[in-house]
Amino acid sequence: MDKEQLIEKYIQGRLSDLEKKSVEELIQSDEEFRKAIEWEKQVAASLRQKSEEEFAHLLKELSQKKSTPWLKWAAAAAILILGISAILFLFQPPTPKQLFQSYFEPQANITQPIIRGSEITTEDYEAFLAYEERDWANAERLFEMLYGQSSNPVYLLYQGNCLLAMGKFQESIPVLEMAASQNAELSLRAKWFLALANLQNDNLSKTKSLLQEIIEAEDVYSQQAASLLEELE
Q1: Would you say 160 and 193 are in contact if contact means Cβ atoms under 8 Å apart?
Q2: Do the Cβ atoms of 97 and 200 come closer than 8 Å?
Q3: 77: pLDDT confidence band, cut at 50, 70 and 90?
Q4: How many CB atoms are closer than 10 A to CB 127?
Q5: HSE-up (13 A, CA, CB side) for residue 129
Q6: CA 216, CA 21: separation in Å to the nearest integer?
Q7: I need a surface site. Which of 27, 89, 101, 223 has the fewest CB within 10 A?
Q8: Where are the domains of the chain?
């Protein structure tokens, strides 16, 4: 077996006892082979740590060195590592965070039309103006206050969206649950965002249950719910 194949099997952890002995002997007796093995260890460590900067540095270092036998072996093995890593990445399912980022789009303001330059100064108007400007913290505070004054669950839906946009997933759940339970017309919209909040909280069973409910109701979010549920299965 040639040295390139030995390095390849070394990286994959597939060396037989006899081959392990050969590698140990070559490390002691062959300087070029020892350098190739050391370089491959650095490459593997960089990939495990997901340090793109460190790996880029190693590749740059490789390109600047004169061609030697150990560099040829190392380059061939590095290509193998990258190929395996790319395959693993492609077949890795998306994380809850990635799915949330793909599917979360804050509820559009369909409640309070905003006229730019208007002199309207009501709390309701100010809340939706902050919401449209994505001033989530201010909007969330105002919606919470407005709900306290009126008990209108519409404000809970928008408050819950503000909390989701700020990454406060745990806090958004009781707010959205209240919105879903207090108004039948808002219920499925609130449950869509509640499903996303539970997704980020790693409560997949609750997420799937809510998505199935939305799909069966043939609501405005049913198509998105079906797509997300398919990705979770």
Answers
A1: yes
A2: yes
A3: low
A4: 27
A5: 13
A6: 63
A7: 89
A8: 3-91, 97-232
